[in-house]
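Take one record.
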Amino acid sequence: MSELRTAQVAMGRYLRNPTPATAPAGIEERRLKVYRELVYNNIEGFISSGFPVLRTLYDDAQWHALVREFVAVHRCATPYFLEISQEFIRFLSEDFLHRDCDPPFIVELAHYEWVELALDIAEDSPPPLPQHLDPLHAVPRFSPLAWLLSYAWPVHRIGADFQPREPDEPTFLLVYRDREENVGFMALNPATARLAELLRDNTTDSGEALLARLATELGGDAEATRSFGAEQLNQFARCAIIGLQPLPAATADACP
């Protein structure tokens, strides 16, 4: 290893875990302090802004201990600052040893907060607003900017004033970016979540066919499911959660 490379490795080791034992030789403390604070403050700033709700659940000492452990022990797979939030979730899931002050929902809450950033910077475009298509007689296709999420914890309600200690019912959420480039979320009941799951995997079926399948699965009244489902499909289309494509000609000709 060259002398320059040795010096770079030593500095990197120190910046990840700045202790007297790891300080590179021959560099005065004043200069080390500049680099040390620059690196840490940049990383901490990105994490604080990316996880604002999670940040409110800790006092300053607890929070900075968490971020410093991330910097010290996690090996990031990307050099990009915009992907630090995703690396922080990997750290919480794979490398982090929970402390008494850490909430049991920390990983799920962090993931939920990260989704907003991920959708905000995604390069895909939402589907156009359908003008002349009825969701029942068209092929509804999930937007690439709509994510169906399932959590054990009610992550969309958690904050400084609400911190559950045990999970209750599963939480189903749709998080999406609309045509005005705003990220929104929609809480779903199990039936609507199943409809969203069918839509997410759909490539050829009409909305009417999907609702007939849903009614069979739920074992309820088919007409009630069709009525509820048609309203839900229209809402999804307005929110850019789904786009609509014409049915294939053979299928369309077969429709009454």
